[in-house]
Amino acid sequence: xxxxxxxxxxxxxxxxxxxxxxxFSATGAEYARLWQVNLFLTLLTLGLYLPFAKARxxxxxxxxxxxxxxxxxxxxxxxxxxxxHLTMVVLFGGYTLSGYASTWVYxxxxxxxxxxxxxxxxxxxxxxxxxxxxRGLRFAFVGDLxxxxxxxxxxxxxxxxxxxxxxxxxxxxxxxxxxxxxxxxWALNIAVxxxxxxxxxxxxxxxxxxxxxxxxxxxHIEASTSAYGVLMLRVLGLGLLGLVVALVLVMGVxxxxxxxxxxxxxxxxxLFSVAAFCTTYWVGLVGTSAQLSAGVQNIVWNAxxxxxxxxxxxxxxxxxxxxxxxxxxxxxLTLGLYRPYAWVHAQRMRWAAIxxxxxxxxxxWRQTPTPGVKGVKGAxxxxxxxxxxxxxxx
Amino acid sequence: xxxxxLPVRWFDGERALPQAARLRWADAQLHLVHDxxxxxYAARHLAWPDASQHRVRHxxxxxxxxxxxxxxxxxDAWRAGLGLPMSWVDRWSAHxxxxxxxxxxxxxxxxxxxxxxxxxxxxxxxxxxxPSTERQLGDRVWREVDAKWLQPSRLSKAQENAAWAALAPVxxxxxxxxxxxxxxxxxxxxxxxxALPGGQIVITDRLIELLTQADGSVHPAxxxxxxxxxxxxxxxxxxxxxxxxxxxxxxxxxxxxxxxALLAAAPVVFAxxxxxxxxxxxxxxxxxxxxxxxxxxxxxxxxFFAQLAVDQKGRDGDTTYLGLSSHPADNERIRYFEQxxxxxxxxxxxxxxxxxx
Lengths: 394, 357
Hints:
The structure holds two protein chains of two kinds. Chain A is of the alpha+beta class. Chain A contains eleven helices and eleven strands. In chain A, the strands form two sheets. Chain A has a six-stranded antiparallel sheet with strand order 2-3-4-5-6-7. Chain A has a five-stranded antiparallel sheet with strand order 1-11-10-9-8. In chain A, strand 9 (304-306) and strand 10 (309-313) form a beta hairpin. Chain B is α+β, with helices and mostly antiparallel strands. In chain B, strands 4-3-2-1-6-5 form a six-stranded antiparallel sheet. In chain B, strand 3 and strand 4 form a beta hairpin. At the A-B interface, helix 1, helix 2, strand 4, helix 8 and helix 9 of A face helix 2, helix 3, helix 4, helix 8 and helix 9 of B.
């Protein structure tokens, strides 16, 4: 294993990289107990308990993630997270309801939501990181607001372009009709969409990863956009191939069953359409999203390093896809009750693929003040994360 | 209170170095003794860590430092010895049958919410939508549907006039928001009629042809079909079903979370179908009452179902048992219209009779 090319060691002693063992000690049975109680309380309170459930889940996840003999810790205050949760409910509720008012109000609220989304995303990252600790030292997220908007820019291009082309080529779109665009405009839109997808992913991941701080370590990420583009093409190709194979197999089996039991045409029609829908979802969506997230984990962590810390990810993509396909099947068969087990199994496989090495003794690391994060000390540290305790994402 | 100390590791929040420390509890205060000195924390400032499912005890202290104890058994014994209770959620998930009880209660709660709270809440939400907004919504859909899926009617002038004549008694009783259009539909659409939110009603050519009798007149069952569709409009079924499926998907999302949108969609499809069957029964009740007011024998509808059965062999066959069908079984509906007595009913928009539910 060699040092990253951008890192020129000044002290040869610093090149003595030692592994920090990563271990994920959660078990499905244990997590299920926690999840079941969380679920009931969330239902009982019609969702108000969600931030408390989330804090408990994160505490569990972090406390079982060991790096070099010490677990991570999540210390977010669920009461503050409740404020953030309610903010999100109001925002998204308003957005959803605005659809019933008029097209204009709907478009306006969608634009407003898109405009504040990068700020919300950044606030969530700040809160999550400011409340995560390892060896007693807080993490921080120092990405600035401008950076958040810049990172999200590629993903806002396709909808904006689509809106503009619809307005120019088909003004009746605003009356709620599907726009009738010339073929070349469609082609342009699709091309921009295909280019923006990997570009946006690259920018988002770069902004995210390079904003992390811990004990003064400044991570450096060197993943090219083309790496994400290649990944997405591979996911698309393999996903389609897998989908076709799976559909042929499932339909073949169903046909055999139909012949065997002499089922009527109408019954067969229903069975075929239900099976086609489920298979498409299962292989087409569960499979490809697992493939994508595994690929992204490998790209991001293998491209990231800090002067005294290296991270590597060697997640077996095929194995992860297979695991998620199995997980999904069990979740469906158990009406959702397998979900905590599925979650733990997926997390375990992802963590098991990560290797961390340090060239210094971690005992010597110190908290250093991070620019842009004031007063990350004591309970007020939460305030620096963000006033509302926004923790975006489940 | 016994003076018991617990050895732990302590991080001062400035250095990543774990330091040996001892914990002692006295006078409702936690005292931390480390190499450099002693710190005390009032009980009310402490957020005790979850115990039951963790392999470590982390106690974040108000001054930014952190206690880490990897000997969970010792920690729990120490804490229990001091009489410091665990949180009730923690005790619940640690209890042998607690989580299983939570699952049972969750299922019961979901069923109850599904059956009673969700439809009522969605219908209440629909009340907030003004009739003009509803009409805008429906008209938007109508323009789309008309442009994409329907063609102008191909009926002759005589056929059309016969159809209007059959509809007249019911139309005379309908409000101004009801607008009826005849359209030529695809083969899949077949003999059909549907209503959009706000009052637009569509009747396909095939349906009119199906109910046209030997003498060229159209059977009064057509008025019954119209009355049924008017029932959908009056009860705002289109709008209510939008709200119901939104609420159902929100609930399914809570249960299944991020895991999978399909799993979340499946219960919505079933809920939608069952709500839709309820809505059809409600519309049938409306139709029966309206027909009686228009002096049409509701048993005319039996003719409609008979014609439909001839037209579509195998209808009402295989999907009903899957719970996926959007309409109640034909036999049930025929029985409903057969049961009608011919005495006129005063108020068509009154709640449907219990037998219709």
